[in-house]
């Protein structure tokens, strides 16, 4: 039998530390104030729409701004190599593909690649069930973004239904008060 406390404890694994409308609201100076030196970010519906092959000019500027402030970025995606490689290579951004988030191995590998500590790294993503859960399980500060696209691939559509229920629970319990949640 689950107690209220054990259910809350389980659901808290899905609770991000922060919620923003888009990656463009993530400021490198504020990250540096928190001692952050690196970002692990999802790709699809976090940086661009899941069906957009390349970065937008605004996103290219965002990456450049992070680089200027010495904040390293690695893309960690559950997608196939061809998708992630075609997006990341023109930008010169390291990436891990078929990451199997929320499993923790890819998050740990990204930190090793960037040669930073877990405490110096944030995880950014648009999904509670993969990005936030995986980041939280690995001990990172997590930032949830509103999905870039209103549509999703098949597997993600299923996840979104579960996420809406979790977000509604958080709202009812007063754990979140974001107006633009999933």
UniProtKB/TrEMBL annotation:
<dbReference type="InterPro" id="IPR023214">
    <property type="entry name" value="HAD_sf"/>
</dbReference>
<dbReference type="InterPro" id="IPR051400">
    <property type="entry name" value="HAD-like_hydrolase"/>
</dbReference>
<protein>
    <submittedName>
        <fullName>YqeG family HAD IIIA-type phosphatase</fullName>
    </submittedName>
</protein>
<dbReference type="InterPro" id="IPR036412">
    <property type="entry name" value="HAD-like_sf"/>
</dbReference>
<dbReference type="Pfam" id="PF00702">
    <property type="entry name" value="Hydrolase"/>
</dbReference>
<keyword id="KW-0378">Hydrolase</keyword>
<dbReference type="InterPro" id="IPR006549">
    <property type="entry name" value="HAD-SF_hydro_IIIA"/>
</dbReference>
<keyword id="KW-0460">Magnesium</keyword>
<dbReference type="InterPro" id="IPR010021">
    <property type="entry name" value="PGPP1/Gep4"/>
</dbReference>
């Amino acid at each position: 039998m689950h107690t209220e406390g054990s259910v809350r404890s389980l659901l808290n694994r899905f609770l991000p530390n922060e919620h923003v409308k888009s990656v463009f609201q993530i400021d490198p100076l504020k990250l540096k104030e928190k001692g952050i030196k690196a970002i692990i970010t999802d790709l699809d519906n976090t940086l661009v729409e899941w069906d957009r092959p390349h970065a937008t000019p605004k996103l290219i500027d965002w990456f450049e701004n992070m680089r200027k402030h010495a904040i390293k970025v690695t893309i960690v995606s559950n997608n196939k190599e061809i998708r992630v490689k075609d997006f990341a290579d023109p930008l010169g951004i390291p990436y891990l593909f078929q990451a199997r988030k929320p499993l923790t191995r890819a998050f740990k590998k990204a930190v090793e690649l960037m040669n930073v500590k877990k405490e110096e790294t944030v995880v950014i993503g648009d999904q509670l069930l993969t990005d936030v859960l995986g980041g939280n399980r690995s001990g990172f500060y997590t930032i949830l973004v509103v999905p870039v696209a209103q549509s999703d691939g098949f597997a993600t559509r299923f996840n979104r239904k579960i996420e809406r229920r979790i977000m509604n629970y958080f709202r009812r319990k007063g754990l979140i008060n974001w107006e633009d949640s999933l």
